[in-house]
Design brief:
Structural class: mainly alpha
Shape: globular
Strand content: 5-15%
Order of helices and strands: HHEHEHHHH
Number of helices: 7
Length: 158
């Protein structure tokens, strides 16, 4: 409880910033950092990246413009994400009628289940090994034990 009380002023400051500027990317929303990392990964070497995503309330025209702006800066925010990649386009589609999004949703569900099982100490060694190459080194993960097994080898080992 002491830690929560100590964090109170910082939490209030973040809340005030979010209320003052609706353009601020919500700090706990994993979608925007995930898109940034995907563009960085797939756009390595400067290749333009076109994304097809299911319709999502957080992906407004303004937010997509922010993503393009962040990726065009020398150091996109957040700073711990390397500044490479170019978002050529981000097209929103109906996930019920786009097979690409359906396959991506299925694979994301499988990955989520494997990671969740590992987090809860019920991981399958073979499945975890298959998932590991697709886990981003910049992922936020609060459990050191499962991260040491699940995270990319370069970030999981000192």
């Amino acid at each position: 409880m002491d830690l929560l009380q100590q964090a109170g002023p910082r939490a209030a400051s973040v809340r005030a910033r979010l209320l003052d500027d609706p353009r601020t990317i919500p700090p706990l929303d994993p979608l925007i950092p995930a898109i940034l990392r995907a563009v960085v990964y797939w756009g390595e070497g400067g290749a333009p990246v076109a994304i097809v995503h299911d319709q999502h309330t957080a992906l407004t025209r303004e937010r997509i413009g922010q993503l393009q702006e962040l990726l065009s800066q020398p150091e996109p925010v957040p700073a711990h994400h390397p500044p490479t990649g170019r978002l050529a386009s981000l097209r929103l589609v109906d996930s019920r009628s786009d097979s690409r999004v359906q396959v991506a949703d299925f694979l994301a569900g499988v990955a989520r289940r494997i990671a969740s099982d590992e987090l809860n100490d019920r991981g399958d060694e073979t499945l975890t090994a298959l998932l590991r190459p697709y886990v981003d080194a910049f992922s936020s993960w609060g459990d050191d034990r499962s991260w040491s097994v699940l995270g990319p080898r370069s970030s999981a080992q000192p």
